[in-house]
């Protein structure tokens, strides 16, 4: 398949490249919708002893995605009208024609509905992804990574900060939705060098003793959230932050996305470990008790829209932070817009709408990327690797200055 990515950056005269859909045969987005989501339905089905009602609903959802059109939520669904308003033009159309970001988000809402997570009854509130999360958290890899924290004790504060930032960044590879809940399709070996590295700008925003407020919008639990908590502890313990706001999802989402219950599970895992890991866990728990670390959530984190459309209350909250750190691939797609941007498009320009300084820590697991140096992009394209989608490459991008301008995105742009 030829490269169908935009090269000029115009769409409909608005100066915007096209929104990514699942239409293109052989594209990453189409593979997610046609292969990964049906496989996930079967994995969730096999993880619980669901009854006939849940099995019928899962069968109907599977058939609808592959052969049917997008159906609205049922009349009894409390958020039916909300979703009808979020994308009325997509209902009655093939799933593959909807914006990728919208379709993925609606898929996870429909999956929760199929297994009874939102309904009154015995399956209400039972996380369908919990077995996969727990298996990862209790695995040998987590044990090894916790033991490795003892090796950091002899490092200087600067060396430790660098190591922990890298740990938080590369922890994003531990994505059960990307790898598959059974771990059968682990990503290829990571490439050490970052495709963009603004880590110096990140640390410049958080000098020791400044007492900054840092917002961290989490992505995955388990082997990513534990390094995130370790980094948060370092920020607080070394005075680079006086307060941290940790944002998680309000309900199960994208398989391994972190909720409050997952924060608790990861903290217990830390606290129960010997050595440095246990000490970090106890400090994190104390920080939560004193209010220096506060776990928050918002319904918008499960919405099918880019962050440019965040509601006023969330915009105001994030506007109080010295720096907002967004973890992971989905947050990156929502930050810059899930579009076929030319890869050299300015990161600062497309994030200018964000209410304050913002940093993205992300391993690349989808087509969207901006802010690359032309020489870096040329080398990546020559490599012959699927560098955009394989999870082997990573970036740290920072926009330190907020100038109040933005790239305008029309309503329901995905």
UniProtKB/TrEMBL annotation:
| Residue ranges of domain Damage-control phosphatase ARMT1-like metal-binding in the record | 33-373
The yes or no answer to whether the keyword Manganese is present is yes
Q: Kindly give the InterPro entries that the UniProt entry links to this protein.
A: ARMT-1-like_metal-bd_sf (IPR036075), ARMT1 (IPR039763), ARMT1-like_metal-bd (IPR002791)
Q: Which cofactor does it need?
A: Mn(2+)
Q: Which UniProt keywords apply?
A: Hydrolase, Manganese, Metal-binding
Any coiled-coil regions, as ranges:
none
Q: Does the keyword Cytoplasm apply?
A: no
Reaction catalysed by this enzyme: beta-D-fructose 6-phosphate = dihydroxyacetone + D-glyceraldehyde 3-phosphate; beta-D-fructose 1-phosphate + H2O = D-fructose + phosphate
The family classification in the record reads: Belongs to the damage-control phosphatase family. Sugar phosphate phosphatase III subfamily.
Please state what the protein is called: Damage-control phosphatase ARMT1 family protein
Look up and give the organism this protein is from.
Streptomyces mutomycini
Task: State the taxonomy lineage.
Answer: Bacteria, Bacillati, Actinomycetota, Actinomycetes, Kitasatosporales
């Amino acid at each position: 398949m030829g490269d169908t990515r935009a090269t000029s950056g115009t769409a409909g005269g608005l100066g915007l490249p096209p929104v990514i859909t699942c239409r293109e045969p052989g594209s990453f987005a189409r593979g997610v919708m046609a292969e990964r989501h049906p496989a996930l339905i079967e994995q969730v089905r096999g993880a619980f002893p669901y009854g006939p009602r849940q099995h019928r609903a899962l069968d109907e959802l599977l058939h609808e995605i592959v052969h049917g059109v997008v159906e609205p939520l049922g009349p009894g669904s409390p958020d039916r009208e909300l979703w009808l308003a979020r994308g009325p033009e997509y209902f009655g159309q093939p799933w593959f024609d909807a914006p990728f970001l919208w379709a993925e988000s609606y898929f996870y809402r429909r999956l929760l509905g199929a297994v009874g997570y939102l309904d009154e009854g015995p399956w209400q509130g039972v996380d369908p992804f919990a077995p996969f999360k727990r298996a990862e958290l209790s695995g040998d890899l987590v044990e090894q990574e916790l033991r490795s924290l003892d090796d950091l004790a002899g490092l200087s504060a600067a060396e430790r900060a660098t190591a922990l930032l890298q740990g938080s960044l590369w922890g994003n590879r531990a994505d059960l939705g990307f790898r598959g809940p059974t771990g059968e399709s682990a990503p290829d070996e990571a490439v050490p060098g970052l495709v963009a590295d603004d880590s110096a700008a990140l640390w410049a925003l958080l000098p020791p003793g400044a007492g900054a407020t840092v917002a961290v919008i989490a992505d995955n639990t388990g082997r990513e959230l534990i390094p995130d908590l370790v980094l948060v502890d370092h920020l607080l313990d070394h005075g680079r932050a006086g307060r941290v706001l940790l944002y998680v999802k309000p309900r199960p989402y994208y398989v391994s996305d972190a909720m409050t219950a997952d924060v608790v599970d990861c903290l217990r895992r830390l606290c129960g470990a010997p050595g440095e890991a246990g000490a970090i866990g106890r400090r994190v728990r104390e920080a939560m008790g004193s209010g220096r670390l506060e776990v928050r959530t918002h319904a918008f984190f499960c919405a099918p829209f880019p962050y440019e459309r965040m509601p006023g209350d969330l915009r105001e909250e994030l506007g109080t932070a010295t720096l907002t750190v967004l973890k992971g691939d989905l947050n990156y797609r929502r930050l810059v817009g899930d579009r076929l941007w030319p890869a050299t498009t300015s990161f600062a320009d497309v994030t200018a709408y964000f209410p304050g300084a913002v940093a993205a820590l992300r391993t690349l697991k989808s087509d969207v990327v901006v802010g690359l140096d032309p020489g870096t992009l040329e080398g990546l394209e020559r490599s012959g690797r699927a560098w955009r989608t394989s999870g082997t490459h990573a970036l740290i991008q920072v926009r330190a200055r907020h100038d109040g301008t933005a790239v305008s995105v029309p309503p329901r742009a995905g």
